[in-house]
Design a protein that fits this description.
Length: 193
Amino acid sequence: MSDEELDGREPRNARQPGSDLLAARDGDALAFDRLLRPMLGKLLALSRRLTVSEAQAEELLQEVLIRIHRGLAGFRMECSFRSWAFSILYRLARSPGRYSLQSRPGSVALDETLPDRMDVDPFTRVSARDLLRRVEASMERLPLRQRTALHLRSVEGWSYEEIAVALDTSEGSTRNAVMHARRSLRERLGDLL
């Protein structure tokens, strides 16, 4: 008998994959938390990529979580829950007027504190910081669909099929968006690559 069973808890592996989804649809707040908690950081990362400021990113994430909660009962499971959640974020981010999608004026929030170790070569540290700023600035100049597709593919490791579902487009269009985004970054950052 496992420790969980001895304590009266449900064994970790006893839960079926879709059981949290079904329980959350029935109003189980803990199941909803278990369902969303692993995705929160990734949802916030994409929110930051698609908005102008940290405050807007957090506001967008809050709205996404509200929409997910409200729409869960109507989720038809025609795609993965993850794709559905990210599609809500993408649709909200591209809605006109609410979230400004222009580039952030000269800003990339970086940790400007002293390094943990002093044996780091200062030139390497400055070069890496400059590279990060240039990559971020180039990413911000990409159209929303390309920026989102490239983020989901390169940062999150999604398949083209999953990205197509989240962006409500075809797999071919998704491949094109990623290819054009990469080409644009190569053109802008060619001297660094």
